[in-house]
Amino acid sequence: MSETDEIVREFALQRIAYIFNVPVDSLNKEAVFGSDLEATHPPGLFNPNEYDKVEGDILDVCDREIYKAISSGNLTIRTVGDYCDHMIKCYKKNPKDVIATLKITPLS
User: Fold this and answer.
1) Structural domain boundaries, residue 58
2) Of the four listed, 82, 94, 103, 106, which is most buried by Cβ atoms within 10 Å?
């Protein structure tokens, strides 16, 4: 894994920790959304819950090909590791969107 991949992974972990209001150190790549990481309030039309925010991140950074895979059920992001891997993969295709979503400074 490259240094850039590691940086994107670290910021992705920080984003998940922020969304779920947990310490970064408590996260591991096997943590499953919905069982290990649970939303603290139900979703609302104008008040997205934690799952809505994660889903928004995932969709905000993907390209058409990845969006089709997600929509068809051929790609499922269930764990923190899946989320991080998704961000790394999307960074390689379109770094600008990942940088904006994860709120990181541009990588060289």
Assistant:
1) 3-102
2) 82
